[in-house]
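Following up on my earlier message about zinc ion. Here are the inputs again, as you asked, copied directly from the submission form:
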Amino acid sequence: MRTVKLIEPGKLVVENTNEQFGITDSTVKVQVKACGICGSDLALYNGRRDLSGEHYFGHEFSGVIIDEGKGFNGMKTGMRVASELIKGCGRCWFCRNGLQNYCKSLNDALLPGGFTEETLVTNTDAYSFLTPIPDSLDDVTASIMEPANCAFHVAVKAAVKPGDSVLVFGLGAIGLIAAQILKTLGAGTVIGADRSKLRIEQVRRTGLLDVVDTSDPDWLDQVKEMTAKEGVDIVIEATGAPAVLQDAMTAARTGGRIVVPSVYFGSIDGFEPLPIMRKELTIVGSKGPAPQLKADGTSAVLDKVIQIQDDLRKMITVYDYKDALQAFADARSGAAIKAVIKF
Ligand SMILES: [Zn+2]
Ligand SMILES: [Zn+2]
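Thanks, got it. Here's what our run produced:
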C-alpha cells in the first residue's frame, strides 16, 4: 500500500507497505484518489501539534468506497465520496449543545488518514465523515470539500448581508475559499490582504480577488477607497499572526464584524483593545469543520463547491504520490496555495 507517513515531526517518508487495516462494522474503507495538505497537517509535521494518537493526518480527501462495513448513512461500495464532517457523535456535551465541531470523535475518525492508498473512515448510525459526490466533480476538486466546509463555517459566522464589503486577511486556502463563498452569498466588494509578495502575486495571477499589500504604509486608505466606506462591514482574519487582529479592528467599520478562523501561536505586543468598545465590534471565532446541512440532511457545502469549482481549481497544485515530499515542501514554503497529492 503506497503511503506518505509522518514518522515523527520533520520526518516524512513515502513508502510501500504491507500494512492492512481490517474493516469493522463501524468503518468503511475508502480507496483514496486525492488528498490535500492542510495547515494542521503542517502543524503536525512541524511538531506544533502532538502526533501521538493523532488520527487526523490527511483529512482532506476524495476517493471510492471499496468496503462499506455495515453501510450506515447509505454508504455503498463503489460510491465516490469526499471527507467532510456530516454528523458528530450526537452524544457528547458539544454535540448536544450545537458545537459538533468540538466533538472528540473527530480525533478517531480516520485510520490511518488520507495520505495513503486506502484508509478506514468511521461511519456509524451516529457519526459520519463522508459525503457522496456527483460525477460533475473531479477527484482533485472534491478533495477540497473538507476545507470548503471550514470556509463555509467562516461564511456562516460572517452573517453576510447583501452588498456587505468584506476584507480577508491571509490568503491561504481557508481565506480564499471563504472569500469565494461569501461572494455567492451576496457580499459586495470582497478584497484580499496579505504581506507575502509571493502570495499576492499568486492570487493576482488567478484573478480571484483584488488584493491589497499590507506592507504598503497606505494599505488602509487603499481599502477605504475600494469599499467607499469609512471601514469594512466584515473582516475575516485568517493569517494566524496575532498582530493582524489589531489591523482587522482598524479596518472594520463602526459596528463591524470580525471572524477569526486563525490558529494563533504566541501573543500580541502592545495590543490596543479599545476599538472593541469604541466601534462596537463583534469578534467571533470559527473553528474547523462543522455539519453544514440542507433541510434534506445532505451537504450544503457540496452545492457551494460545485458552484465555485472553477475558482477552487485555480488554488490547487496537484502532485503525484511519488512527489509527496515536494508537495509538503511547497505547502510549507507557500509555493502552493493548496497542495493536493494524487494516489
Ligand atoms: Zn483541514
Ligand atoms: Zn460528539
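One observation from looking it over: The chain has a mean pLDDT of 95. Hope that helps, and feel free to reply on this thread.
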